[in-house]
Design a protein that fits this description.
7 strands; about 25% strand; alpha/beta
Amino acid sequence: MKLSIIIPAYNEENTIETVVNAVKAVSLPKNMEKEIIIVNDGSSDKTAQILAQYANDPIIKIYHQENMGKTAALNEGIKDATGDIILVQDADLEYCPDHYPMLVEPILNGETNVVYGSRFLGTIKDMKFINRFANISSNIVFNLLFGTKITDINTCYKAFKKDVIKSITIESTDFTFETEVTSKLINRGEKIIEIPIDYVARSKEQGKKINWGKAWKMFWGMIKYKNKT
């Protein structure tokens, strides 16, 4: 059994080494193998140079592409993943890899094909009011549209059984991955289990890339993918 961890990275010179080393160090249940796929999304800082140190690491694959957005980077990683379970990890320090065992356990036990790590079921530190409001609002709108009770559709931490996520055609290239994938999973009748995680938000000065323009794209994505599978 193998876990593929996909890390999209754009201008993450301050955190990428710490994150990769943390992902390498985390222990997985049931002697799972680990595959780390890093997609450098056209970074203009020193991200590529820092990643060069991992070029010969047998469990790490590194891809470099022109800047096409987070969803395009994730799509590339998903396409090349060989693991039985695929998990998404942002290249910053907001999410802790120590949660991996809890994220994959329901899939390993046959309870579900999809697990989300919910910030709103766990602990949140340093999230600005406006960001908390936007996240809660998007959860409410999504649940009203789809008749669900998901507490955190925008969480980075999502784990999928390989066949499930690879069977979804990702149409978007921007920050609507979370909305599109969640919409299509629900439309296919997939059961999404949420587990509580700890989350430490970073500021715009620290590299936070979400803004209101991207937030509105997420809301539009809910309507766009309402009936798509």
